[in-house]
Amino acid sequence: MERLLADTLFEGAWTAERKLHVSMFELAGNSAYDSRAPFSILQDSFGDTQLVGAKELPINSKSAFLELIEKATSFRQTAGTEKNDGSSRSHAICRIRAVNILPGVSEDGILYLIDLAGSEAARDLANHSADRMKETREINISLSILKDCIRGIASANNTPETSKKGQKGSYIPFRQSTLTRVLKHVFDPSGTRNSKTAVLACINPSFLDTAASKNTLRYANMLCSTEVKYQSAEHNPAIPKSWNNKFVRSYITRESGNPVISPSILAPHESGPQLLSIPLPQFVARCLRTKGVTERQAKAFHSKLWRLHIDSTRGSVTDKRNTDLIQQGASSPANVVPVTRISTRDLVCEGDMRTFKDRIRPGMVVRCNATVNFPGTSSEQKLVMILCPQNVVGKNMKDALGNEVNPSYCLSAHEKTERYLCAMILSGGLADSYEVSIWRQIVVHLSSMEAEVSLEYDPATRYYHMC
């Protein structure tokens, strides 16, 4: 079996387009082990299963693949039973991941080879120790849950579409066992990844084991001719993992800030899931290849993209609002302002080529230079939100420095029009977060303003983040 698989994997020209990575581990009860060392089975933000702590090795040849299988097999837990002197006491799993190294939108291919531990009848447990009986019970439970999952997915796929309306879907208990959690992509009804399953059933030709053989064949028969139907991943502007490359490029153009990060540099071929999978250092490095983009802007855009992704996986109440905002940003007329606003960016003046100093407005956030005094803070960035011109403020009003905002002396009318009453923006309690201190106000001269900054409000944390 191993040699047949090795011959299949390493023959043909497709190996030049893929890199193979292999991990081998075993499941005993609710625990997972790699070379007898425990590791964790977790779910990432994409809903995919991740083996945290398991070793994954690159394999470049048949000999290396066979050597790895032989070494991993030596670690597998076995023990003598009534029927088998070398009975497997764990489920052995070989996970082969084929990584696409050519530009494109295809996901990594994953192949699981699973050698299930054999079940045992109650009559075979009479002479077992307490530990052996516990192992057998855990094995039988995991196989029973696997059977229920197979029945559930078969039932769901054999139900006519016309009779599904108004009915609850079949319950598939894939979260109840470590084995079925590893195989989540096969049993999860909401999954969109296509997969195929082949089963090899081993039986004993002896007439003494006829009942056990019939039970094994009955178990395997449930998978025969079962066509698994998967939901297609429908495009949703508020769900980044559903984006194709065309929408990724348009999103980068609209939402990456000023200057606009080049979509052809950041995501020349990537889909939404692939863009999210880019490590932060590589993401920032790509952004910095666009002239004028700073590291802070690149990290802020990365955080913005990931906040949208996390909100979409939570089924947040902000999903519809995010969808509306993104769709309006893509297609609304320039003179239409969305009712719901979570960003300080000026949507009406989108595409206006004037400098920010020529289009000052209430609510605009700007970065000030070092000459501006921020009382009682040590903020690295001096950010303020513009409220109104100095000359419209009533008499006897003082700012956070104790100075009169609109004095009647020493300032000409023209000079007053170039000064603005602003609210201070201070660092928040989270990394790269900000909060508007609306009652702490200072007067800032137009010449002290360096650049416009876009902030976006996050309802979950109640902080603002750069976008």
UniProtKB/TrEMBL annotation:
Pfam families membership: Kinesin (PF00225)
Coiled-coil segments on the chain, per record: none
The Kinesin motor domain, residue ranges: 1-226
InterPro entries assigned: Kinesin-like_fam (IPR027640), Kinesin_motor_dom (IPR001752), Kinesin_motor_dom_sf (IPR036961), P-loop_NTPase (IPR027417)
Annotated Gene Ontology cellular component terms: kinesin complex; microtubule; spindle
PROSITE patterns given in the database record: KINESIN_MOTOR_2 (PS50067)
Superkingdom of origin organism: Eukaryota
Matching Gene3D superfamilies: Kinesin motor domain
GO terms for MF: ATP binding; ATP hydrolysis activity; microtubule binding; microtubule motor activity
GO biological process terms, semicolon-separated: microtubule-based movement
Family matches, as PANTHER family: FI21273P1-RELATED, KINESIN-RELATED
UniProt similarity note: Belongs to the TRAFAC class myosin-kinesin ATPase superfamily. Kinesin family.
Name of the molecule in the record: Kinesin motor domain-containing protein
Lineage, opening ranks: Eukaryota, Fungi, Dikarya, Ascomycota, Pezizomycotina
